[in-house]
Amino acid sequence: MAHYLPRSSLVLAQILSMFIPLVVASPDPAAMTYNVVSLGAKADGTTDSTQAFVSAWTKACGSTNPAMIYVPVGRFYLRQVVFNGPCNNNAIIMSIAGTLVAPSDYKVLGNTANWLVFEHVDGVTISGGILDAQGTALWACKASGNTCPAGATTLEFSNSNNIVVSALSSLNSQMFHIVVNGCQNVKMQGIRVTADGNSPNTDGIHVQLSSSVTILDSKIKTGDDCISIGPGTTNLWVENVECGPGHGISIGSLGKDQQEAGVQNVTVKTVTFTDTQNGVRIKSWGRPSNGFARNILFQHAIMMNVQNPIVIDQNYCPDNKGCPGQISGVKISDVTYQDIHGTSATEIAMKFDCSSGNPCSNIKLEDVKLTYNNQAAQASCNHAAGISTGFVQPTSCL
Ligand SMILES: *[C@@H]1O[C@H](CO)[C@@H](O)[C@H](O)[C@H]1NC(C)=O
Fold first, then answer.
1. Whether the predicted model's global pTM rises above the 0.90 cut
2. Number of separate domains in the chain
3. What is the similarity comment for this entry (predicted)?
4. Hey, which residues are catalytic here?
5. b/e string for 340-374 if b means 16 or more Cβ within 10 A?
6. 265 C-alpha to center of ligand 1: Å?
7. Ligand 1 lining (C-beta closer than 6 Å)
8. pLDDT band at 247 (very low <50, low <70, confident <90, very high)
9. Closest residue by CA, ligand 1 atom 1
């Protein structure tokens, strides 16, 4: 990935090695590995290891060479950890063989927005590991109607570039599992998200104000959106994802703010939705905004008993406040649905409920087959224009 040696020193090393072979050896790679246990972490699941992780990060981030933080097998109890940059190198790998465990008492993280957060970093890879946020007590509190803290996002990357996350599992997050905010060039592969289908606000992966984010080969079971795509997301690629239970893959909610960055160039392909509330959804508030969503491709999706397989809803307005005339300012255009098959759990499998002030334009349907109770499902359109080609069932209402 990154070049961490200045080119001049590489050339110098090559020249020197011609004359004095073996003297200019590369440094011992072990010297740049920081094992959290050597720094005082305990793998017993109860001893607070926060300080050991902070020490490991301080050393890795301060290193002028590439560095590795190693977390061995075992359970490591951590309060909030902020992995802050900028760092002195742009090649830090956190290799996790074990499990990081959040406090089971939700009052410890309380209203802290995040549990594990990387900020202002460049070139960080997280490989492996389980993040166990122990969110069940907070969900129960929220379900009881008592006053509870909002809860923390499990893992957030904020204002960072060149991030890789692979083979990571996130379990029972208090709030969102993974958030990508204000980042460029993020690749996530082999992510597993697991939480109860009734757990509140436990979105799997949320992306906003970010570009060139790729999410591949992941399985997400949770209580809210499997993937949610917020304002300011551009060049997002999602491929080979299994979603369910959950609320599907959503662009939105958009248009909450009057001034809002748009969503552009999003590809969602080869996804399976099982028993989800939605399949592929675009959702905006019914209120004034300069936001938009355009150049969106939903391709090769399988719907299995999905309540709203294809849906655009521009009338979102919880509590019916601040939505004059329910007219969304968000402009939705150039959205393609290609090769979408399967079963709907409701009669209306395809719903385009667009803004009366800003109708959806250039919606394209190609090779869609959605059934309800072994019969053709139905479609409903409001203020939506576009075309359909190939076999399209339910019959298009565009
Ligand atoms: C759209 O995004 C993809 C990555 O998801 C990128 O490869 C492509 O260049 C982008 N297209 C445009 C026109 O920016």
1. yes
2. 1
3. Belongs to the glycosyl hydrolase 28 family.
4. 247
5. bbbbbbeebbbbbbbbebbbbbebbbbbbbbbbee
6. 6
7. 235-237, 265, 267
8. very high
9. 235
